[in-house]
Amino acid sequence: MNKLTTLSLVLVACIGCDQSTKYIAKYYLEGQGRYSFIGDTFRLGYSENTGAFLGLGASLPEHVRTIMFSGLVAIFLLVFLVYIIKSSDISKTGIIASALIIGGGLSNLIDRLVNNGAVIDFLNLGIGSLRTGIFNVADMAIMLGALLLLVHKKDTV
User: Would you say the C-alpha torsion 83, 140, 92, 110 has a positive or negative sign?
Assistant: First the structure.
């Protein structure tokens, strides 16, 4: 499979899975409170995040959030995508990892564009008071892609 095919398949799968789960979360979870599973280790609950990771920047003025979380993110994702496409020495793992990061970022960007600057989050993990922030499938793709890049980079050094 060539680079563009791999990149395209991962992007479509990532954006498709994330947008589908967000649609389901909005339909079934919005206004319904929180659902708890496996002894409260896994929670489902609808949330709209106007900030970045863990709500960082949510209190900034709307125009600043729009510039930072839509404009700058869109530019970064476009530059990253062009770099991956033009790069001649990137491995299959590097392509997949980069596509996960780009796909997650694009899907969260789509959210911001269609949800008045907010990203839909609905997942939470933890034990007792030790919990993650509320996140979504795109966030998992971004984290997996970053982890793959780190591990892959370490293996090649």
Answer: negative
